[in-house]
Amino acid sequence: MVKVNKSSQLMEALKDKRVFSSADAVVVGVEIFYSRAPRTVRDWAREGLVRRIPDFEAEERGLVKPGRAQLAWYEFNSNL
Questions:
Q1: Which of 34, 46, 49, 63 can bridge 58 by disulfide, Cβ–Cβ 3.0-4.6 Å?
Q2: What value, to the nearest 5°, has the Cα angle with vertex 70 and ends 32 and 36?
Q3: How are strands ordered across the β-sheet holding 19-21?
């Protein structure tokens, strides 16, 4: 039996989305019982696995909903 760690499970679940928010990471983290999911995504950004989308770019892409809380948006690098 192959054991997969929580970080890998999180990555596989979020890769399908390609562009995801910090809230998406929390939802997936809850589903797999991984409370460290948001911190892991920030670690991936620091390592260069994902790119944090700046707020102005998130607005241009239509990711930001008016009147909603500001979320951090990320996308996987194209070489993954």
A1: 63
A2: 25
A3: 19-21, 73-76, 50-53
